[in-house]
Specification:
Length: about 675
């Protein structure tokens, strides 16, 4: 079965190179003939010439970067470049024929000695003081020419492997790791006790996750007319102020951008930063701008910008909650109850559970014994009950109210809450009270989230047969305001968890993918080593799948794979971990299980596969789509993840060589002779 080569994102190539410590001093970029620089990985300093000036050498300077690129594209070996001032770098043409018009550029380092005569000449031509240029040069890493040559050779040797599919595994693992970090950080942000604690955690997270050298934060003042700017990472604490008008203008000029990069605007908006550019990350709670995060001289890649947006969104929600708590605090027990109830809602993990918690919390807050929470359905024209109290569950599930109809429908349409003392005498409703309600008083209020009505909350039957009042309405509005922010945070958390799940699952089979397998297998090796346990690894591969696909088509082959996955999942035990190894091979980890005890499981899988009813298998040599299976056990057959998989693959190869449709156990070779035992065949 042929596999179409997947195009590699240039940014992913740079990220993979960054994982090698010897590339750390250099600034990296990818140059494409006819397009210029198509990707760059700049965390500190910048490239010269085509990528922005490190030292402004003037128009008369003939920097070697252009010549370096031109020469690299014409050769198959690394090309070293050096400018008269003392800057060093190299360029390498990509070995892949499909990328022969591209090359890697590494720059941004200098030698220990600087050409002072050239520096003086350059200073006169540009009008820039020599000490200013020296300060900029002093911030660059010192790497001697021989070290640059050695690094260029090492990069040249590893580029072919980086351009293979391994780069995707590396990027996937890095993304999963960062997503896990974001989930943990988000939980800590939700628990921030004050503004300083939230901002400090957010800044530290940005510094670590995105390798930021400098971070500044602008926070809205009490009146909202100005934003104070302070350094939180590598900058002075007091950076002055910027006006609210300019901040909102900036938002309007970059609509919908996740992380706009300010260049010409930086000096206008943030005069004290002293940076040529800055990435701007707004702290938005609904439609209110609470402030922003500023990353001087740094441009986030799209993947990092998404993670940054998740963190800033969570931080903004927590800051808004802290502000509301401060505004409504009056020294009485009421704010404490409101905070406690909000914290109770924060403990909920899913939106569905949150619906019930919002209703029960509101009912407890106002002392109501009946009520319902209604949310717009997907059409946006009807309300459905998602949580009820004191109502028949079957009636609640089947009830649907169109917008504008009934009391709840009118409240949803107008956005105006209603408090009724007597449903039978109030001219706005004037209808007979239903027998299931003890009292004739009720309250109906719209549920807002992000300046948009998403549903309606209804409460009735107040304790002591009392009536609802306007004060109750105000209290309920406060609680639902908090609930709206909790809802936004819960949805964000679910989206993050979904991203993590998707990154660990193979879309074709819905099984855990190879990246997850490698991680889980490594964990099982470590656990078994600590506890002196044994476990078995199983590789299952369909026989003649390529032949079947060529006869019956790829769609039929995909259907056969899905049936095989179902058979494996049914046959495996609940404690076993089933993963996708490649397009036609599956791996099963059986914790705490020796090889002989794993045989019944694998034989069930083999027999279930052979019994599958699949159209067109009569044309195969065996008249069926069977499976060959290989087993290996830790630590007898291998004491590492790679060793175990290699042993299982060896047993699988033996199973195919012995006629397929059988189970083979790997045995350690006695006295340097291979010995692999076949234990089941049919």
């Amino acid at each position: 079965m042929s596999h179409k080569k997947v195009a590699i994102n240039p940014v992913d190539i740079l990220d993979s190179l960054r994982s090698y410590s010897f590339t750390a001093p250099f600034t990296l970029a990818i140059f494409s003939q006819g397009e210029g620089v198509i990707a760059k990985n700049i965390s500190s300093g910048q490239l010269c010439g085509i990528c922005g000036a490190t030292a402004e050498c003037g128009k008369s300077c003939t920097l070697p970067v252009d010549d370096l690129v031109r020469e690299a594209l014409a050769r198959v070996v690394p090309v070293i470049g050096r400018c008269p001032l003392g800057l060093l770098g190299f360029a390498i043409r990509f070995p892949d024929p499909a990328m022969s018009n591209r090359c890697l550029i590494a720059w941004g380092v200098r030698t220990s000695s600087i050409n002072l005569f050239y520096l003086e000449s350059m200073s006169r031509s540009t009008g820039i003081k020599p000490f200013t240029i020296l300060d900029r040069l002093g911030s660059l890493p010192v790497v001697e020419l021989d070290d640059v040559r050695e690094t260029a050779d090492r990069v040249h040797r590893i580029l072919p492997s980086i351009l293979s599919s391994n780069v995707h595994n590396h990027v996937l693992e890095a993304t999963v790791s960062r997503l896990n970090s974001v989930v943990g950080i988000s939980t800590q942000l939700d628990r921030g006790k004050n503004l300083d604690e939230v901002i400090s955690l957010l800044s530290e997270s940005f510094g670590v996750l995105f390798d930021c050298q400098q971070i500044a934060v602008a926070i809205s003042g009490h009146e909202g007319e100005s934003f104070s700017v302070r350094g939180t990472w590598g900058l002075p604490s007091d950076l002055g102020q910027t006006s609210s008008v300019l901040m909102h203008k900036l938002m309007e000029e970059n609509p919908g951008e996740r992380a706009p990069r300010l260049i010409a605007e930086t000096g206008e908006f943030f005069q004290t930063l002293g940076a040529q550019s800055a990435t701007f990350l707004p702290l938005m709670a609904g439609t209110e701008l609470l402030g922003c995060i500023l990353l001087p001289d740094l441009e986030l890649q799209p993947r990092d910008a998404l993670l940054a947006e998740i963190l800033t969104g969570r931080a903004a929600s927590r800051l808004m909650q802290l502000r509301n708590e401060a505004n409504h605090y009056s020294g009485s027990s009421l704010p404490a109850r409101l905070i406690a109830m909000t914290n109770s809602m924060l403990e909920v993990r899913s939106v569905e559970e949150l619906y019930s918690r919002i209703l029960s919390t509101a009912a407890e807050f106002l002392g109501a014994s009946a009520g319902s929470l209604m949310i717009f359905d997907e059409s946006g024209y009807s309300l459905r009950i998602v949580a009820s109290l004191g109502l028949n569950e079957q009636i609640s599930k089947s009830l649907s109210i169109k917008i504008g109809e009934g009391i709840a429908g009118k409240v949803a349409a107008t956005g105006s809450p209603i408090v009724v003392n007597d449903i039978e005498t109030d001219s706005r409703v004037a209808t007979t009270n239903r027998p299931r309600y003890r009292t004739k008083s009720f309250i109906c209020i719209p549920f807002w989230q992000d300046q948009k009505i998403i549903g309606v909350l209804n409460l009735s039957d107040k304790e002591g047969n009392d009536i609802f009042t306007e004060s109750d309405l105000q209290l309920l509005a406060l609680l639902l305001g908090q609930a709206g922010m909790v809802m936004e945070r819960t949805q964000s958390r679910q989206q993050t968890e979904m991203l993590i799940h998707l990154s660990a699952v193979d879309s074709a089979t819905n099984l855990y993918n190879r990246s997850f397998l490698d991680k889980r297998l490594s964990e099982e090796v470590n656990r078994s080593q600590r506890q002196d346990l044994k476990f078995t690894v199983v590789l299952v591969e369909l026989d003649h799948l390529n032949l079947y696909a060529s006869i019956c088509g790829s769609a039929a082959a995909s259907a056969a794979i899905k049936k095989t996955v179902a058979a494996i999942t049914r046959s495996a035990r609940q404690m076993d971990v089933v993963c996708s190894f490649n397009s036609e091979t599956f791996c099963i980890i059986l914790p705490g299980t020796i090889k002989t005890d794993a045989v019944p499981v694998t034989d069930r899988i083999r027999k279930a596969t052979a019994r599958m009813k699949i159209p067109g298998v009569d044309s195969l040599p065996s008249g069926k789509l069977s499976a060959s299976i290989g087993l290996a056990m830790y630590p007898d057959d291998g004491d590492s993840s790679d060793g175990l998989l290699a042993a299982a693959a060896e047993a699988l190869f033996k199973a195919k060589a012995e006629g397929r449709d059988c189970v083979v156990l790997h045995e350690p070779p006695p006295e340097n002779e291979d010995s692999i035992q076949t234990v089941a065949a049919s």
